[in-house]
Every structure is written in structure tokens, then in C-alpha cells.
């Protein structure tokens, strides 16, 4: 539709249990190779020019959610989530009759990715599910040490919790929150640039269980 983490112990990003053991990746990691990173975000309608709102956002049942400008609607259909002028967050729910249908999301301030998963800035990754199974814990060394808006330092862990149009094969889309930040937090770091290939690892076993347990309250969503 997109990640960054501190360490397995909050606030201890400078300490990694696997360092000093002859490896620059955590235990239970398997290389997937090099991936092309891109970035995506939640649109904010208040950041867009006011214009004639001729496009209707409809629910799956055909009920009107809101009317928006054509350019905004087009970008929403690319990004997948948006915050409307009235503060509601909407997500693409399904394609119907050649067009999109939308869901007003509650209990997920940034919207949702794959079913059951909230979008979490710098944590959520959109992947090709034929390449990476949804729900997989991932580790990206290039993200380690990046300072996040929360004050945390990224520890490289993320979640394959979303998909998106154009996310095919060895491409990974990193969710960066609302569009007023866009991808600046990552690009300012100098550690990661759009289209510059980065190493990606899957993580399983005890390490994956620990990461999932740490973030479950943030990413778990029920409609």
C-alpha cells in the first residue's frame, strides 16, 4: 500500500544481543537477497488543494462516505489509505465493477494493511505475497540506527503486513506515516534511498516470536 524499530528491548537500540557473535544479523535470520525500497504514506486531504469534489468514495454496499477532488481520489487509489478533511481515515477495501470501494477505519489511526494488521509507521512493509508470506518478520540492516520521530532508534525489524499494486518480486514498500513527513525521516538518514537496493532477511523462531510479542498491541486490528 509499508518500517523501523528500536531494539527488542524498548529504549535499548544501541544494544543488540546478536552482536559479538560473528554475525551482523540477528539469530534465526535467512537472507532473501537485495530488494528495491520505495516509500508510501497515508494521504492527508487537508494538504491537498481545495477543488471541485466530483469523485465519490463509496462503501462496499454503495453508501457514500465523502466526495473528494479527482487528483486526491487518484492518489488514494495508489497509496491505499487517507485521512479526510473531517478526520476520518479511509482504506481501500475492495475493487468492484472496475472501481474501488472503501472502508472507514476505526481503531487504526493510520489505516490497515492486510486483514488484521494496523499500519504502523516505519514498521509496516508492503511486499509481494508470492515472494514473502504475509505476517513474516523481516530484518533490514540499512534501517538500523535511523532516528525515528518518536525518538527511538530503528533496530532493523519490520513486518510484512501489507501488499500493493506494483509491489512485485524483489521490491519492498516502507510505510512512513502521514504525508507531511513523506519519506524524509529515512532519506535524511543517508542510510536508505528510494530505488537503491538493500539487503532483506526473513526472521523466524524465537527471534520472530519476541518481535511479534513486542509489537502485537500496535499492529493487531479487528474491524
Q: What are the defining features of this structure?
A:
223 residues; alpha+beta; Barwin-like endoglucanases; 2 domains; two-stranded antiparallel ribbon; 3 helices; disordered N terminus
Description:
By secondary structure, the chain is an alpha+beta fold. The chain folds into two domains: about 30-40 and about 110-220, RlpA-like domain (Barwin-like endoglucanases, Beta Barrel), CATH 2.40.40.10; about 45-105, no CATH class. The chain contains three helices and eleven strands, in the order E-E-E-H-E-E-E-E-E-E-E-H-E-H. The strands form two sheets. A six-stranded mixed β-barrel has the order 1-10-7-9-8-11. The chain has a two-stranded antiparallel sheet with strand order 2-3. The longest helix has 15 residues, at about 205-220. The radius of gyration is 18 Å and the shape is globular. The chain starts with about 30 loop residues before the first strand and ends with a helix.
Identify the CATH class of the largest domain.
Mainly Beta
Strand composition percent: 25-35%
Strand arrangement, largest sheet? 1-10-7-9-8-11
Shape: globular
CATH architecture call of the largest domain: Beta Barrel
Distance between termini? 18 Å
Category by helix and strand content: alpha+beta
CATH topology-level fold name of the largest domain:
Barwin-like endoglucanases
Instruction: Please state the CA-atom Rg, rounded to the nearest Å.
Output: 18 Å
| Structure annotation, total helices | 3
Q: Write out the CATH superfamily name of the largest domain.
A: RlpA-like domain
How do the helices and strands follow one another from N- to C-terminus?
A: EEEHEEEEEEEHEH
Residues in helix, % = 10-25%
Uncertain segments: 1-22
Number of domains: 2
Average predicted confidence as pLDDT: 84
Task: Give the tally of β-strands.
Answer: 11
Characterize the main sheet.
Answer: 6 strands, mixed, barrel
Amino acid at each position: 500500500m509499508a518500517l523501523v524499530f528500536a531494539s527488542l528491548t524498548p529504549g535499548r537500540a544501541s544494544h543488540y544481543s546478536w552482536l559479538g557473535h560473528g554475525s551482523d544479523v540477528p539469530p534465526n535470520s535467512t537472507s532473501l537477497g537485495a530488494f528495491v525500497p520505495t516509500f508510501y504514506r497515508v494521504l492527508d486531504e487537508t494538504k491537498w488543494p481545495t477543488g471541485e469534489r466530483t469523485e465519490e468514495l463509496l462503501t462496499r454496499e454503495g453508501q457514500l462516505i465523502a466526495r473528494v477532488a479527482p487528483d486526491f481520489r487518484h492518489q488514494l487509489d495508489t497509496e491505499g489509505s487517507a485521512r479526510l478533511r473531517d478526520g476520518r481515515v479511509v482504506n481501500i477495501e475492495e475493487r468492484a465493477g472496475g472501481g474501488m470501494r472503501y472502508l472507514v477505519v476505526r481503531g487504526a489511526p493510520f489505516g490497515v494493511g492486510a486483514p488484521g494488521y494496523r499500519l504502523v509507521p516505519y514498521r509496516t512493509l508492503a511486499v509481494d505475497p508470492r515472494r514473502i508470506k504475509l505476517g513474516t518478520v523481516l530484518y533490514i540492516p540499512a534501517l538500523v540506527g535511523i532516528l525515528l520521530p518518536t525518538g527511538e532508534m530503528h533496530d532493523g525489524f519490520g513486518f510484512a503486513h501489507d501488499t500493493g499494486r506494483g509491489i512485485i518480486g524483489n521490491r519492498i514498500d516502507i510505510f512512513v506515516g502521514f504525508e507531511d513527513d513523506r519519506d524524509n525521516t529515512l532519506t535524511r538518514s543517508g542510510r536508505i534511498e528510494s530505488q537503491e537496493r538493500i539487503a532483506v532477511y526473513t526472521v523466524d523462531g524465537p527471534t520472530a516470536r519476541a518481535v511479534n510479542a513486542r509489537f502485537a498491541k500496535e499492529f493487531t486490528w479487528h474491524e
